[in-house]
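Backbone description:
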Amino acid sequence: MSKQKLFPKNKKSLTMVLVLFIILLVTLLTSGCIEKNLINDPTTGAINPPINLPPLLDGIYTTSTQFYDTRGYAQQLDINIKNGIITQVNFKEISNNKLDRLTQEGEGKTWEGLGTLTLGSLYYHLYSDLLLTQNPEKIEAISGATQTTEHFIALAKTGIDQAGKGNHEPGKIVTSDTYIIRSQTDPEGYQGVLSATFKGANLITLSYDEIRVEDGKSKIKLSDVEKGINYKAMFGTLVQDTLISQNLSPIFPEGELSLEKFKYYETLRILKDSRNSFSN
């Protein structure tokens, strides 16, 4: 008789323990405690919260470059924060005609000397590094794809800074970009070559010369005694005036435009068209 009475009592106790365990398990799952104990588990997809980084406020944060780069692309990064953790990233490189780089060049685009690296695998590398480390400083740069990598890292830093403040306004980053612009070749075989470096909206360095396409001869070392022209002085004055004025569309009196000045202003026009601001 005692055994028969004990059995139902044990069964009842066991049921109560099971119920309490299930309640506790549901509580842990809904609170996220279990997920936070997993460290970047590739099987479950759970990601450990960042260590020694400021807390992030939930939401989607968008950052982009201020201008199109030397290849004609602007970069945009969307970061999705949930429970203080970066859970999703979306990176796009957008051309002047608003096309995605993946659409224009394809995921299988490769770089010379970089083995099997493709545009698609480059993006995957950047995504996974940011998701797994939760820290842009720990993203591994890829030699040969430096510009894309550097812009991604800078965008991620700005996005995380916004997330720390809960600022959902689209952010812009300042980039340094160097453009090499070439004019058409003149009847004497010379081509204007302009090198311009911007930091954000500011033109910080500028150089100009005319190079003979056939043999690479530099015009800056020459003078036209008959016309009284020292090309080094002429080009230097043009460059200095542009740096001071920051004006890529100068207006000159009619009849004062020599062939050399015409080529210089042609390169400025092309530069202005290349250095377009990006609006997302």
